[in-house]
Amino acid sequence: MREEELRTSIKTVYGMLWDVLALYEKTSGYNEIPSEEKNKEIDIWDYMGEKLLDIRKKVDVLFLGETEVKEKLTQIVDETEVFVRKYEIPGVVTRWKKINSKILYFDCAFDLKKACPKEYSEIAMGLCDAKLACYPDEKQMTDQEKYFSEIQRKNEDGNLRYSEERIFQNELLRTLTLVFEEDFEKI
Questions:
Q1: pLDDT at 160
Q2: Alpha-carbon distances, residue 29 vs 23, 24, 33, 53, 101 (angstroms)
Q3: Which residues of the chain have pLDDT under 50?
Q4: How many H-runs (helices) and E-runs (strands) does the chain carry?
Q5: Angle at the Cα of 173 (from 182 to 67), degrees rounded to 5?
């Protein structure tokens, strides 16, 4: 496959994955069929499954014989499926958290540490059966506060009125972009 054709095909898959992640707000966290699709007799699990299957098919068709690129794209599709099916926030795989640590700011551990410090401490020390996906330190708590203050300032300055779901979705989409940039920087 020629380099330009390869780049175009990768962008096609990126766009399809972007479209799936951009459904987060419209589907109430992948719990409801989007309002424009409600007349169809399909549940959200099947609806999202079809979208992911379409992407898998596109990867298989476009990258037949391109083993290295196909493997990378299949991994990204698998990672996206974990998020779509997990029903957690942020719910992304560890690799995505490493690529964009800001996605961690949406984890409930931050809220728990602020609102219920005693219970958070017990969980962090392993004194109960609950487990958290992350255990923020004071620097991360400060960074998270700055992050959301900056978003709030931008929303107020731009009169954007973004919902919490949209703010999370935007960071998730930024993460997808960073994943593609990391995996395909040489293409």
A1: 79
A2: 8, 5, 10, 19, 21
A3: none
A4: 8, 0
A5: 40
